[in-house]
Amino acid sequence: MITKYEITAKSQRVNYSPVLFCLASMPLMYLYLLYRMKGGSQRIDLIICVSVFLLLFFPVLLIHNDYYTLNKGDELEVDPDNKQIRYKHDQVLIEYKFEDIKNIKYYLREGGRLLWTRYKYCVIEFTDGVKITITTLLVPDIESFFKEICDGKDLVIQIPKFFPTVYKKGA
User: Fold this and answer.
1) Which single residue of 1, 100, 158, 170 has CA 20 to 30 Å from 85?
2) How far apart, in whole angstroms, are the C-alpha atoms of residue 123 and residue 134?
3) Who contacts 46 (Cβ-Cβ below 8 Å, separation ≥6)?
4) In what order do the strands lie in the sheet with 84-89?
5) pTM for this entry
6) CB contact at 8 A, 95 and 86
7) Residue-wise pLDDT tens for the chain (171 aa)?
């Protein structure tokens, strides 16, 4: 059975849900500060709330935009029966066998409760030197994807990053 992956509204929502929670909780935080301070400066309370929100929200916005721009319009198909992977980027289709995978570098944010913890990506390098970058917007359950294509071999190299941005394709 062939598994097809592409960026969908659902895959974006899965990654973006902590930001929506943060957005919903900011007015509550502001009201709480107003209640606790009783007569304090409302302007400072508002500045604190907005600053905290931007500090948490802005990195997620950068990463999300980075991932979306990278994998926008891409299609990925995994055929476990024929042990093949097909990847279409910029209308160019490449096909490889699972055995052609040299390694997979997996960039992730380990631990913690930061809003960008769900954003992860991997760079798959093939034996001929071609590299493709897969983000969690394209493949939301990236760990299951690894199990599907690694075929029992230990190909995944985990690389922890505090801020998992992709600076260039195949990096």
Assistant:
1) 158
2) 6
3) 30
4) 3-5, 75-79, 84-89, 92-97
5) 0.77
6) yes
7) 889 999 888 877 777 777 777 777 777 777 777 777 666 666 776 777 778 777 777 888 888 888 889 899 999 999 999 999 999 998 999 999 999 999 888 888 766 666 777 888 899 999 999 999 999 889 988 888 888 888 777 778 877 777 677 755 444
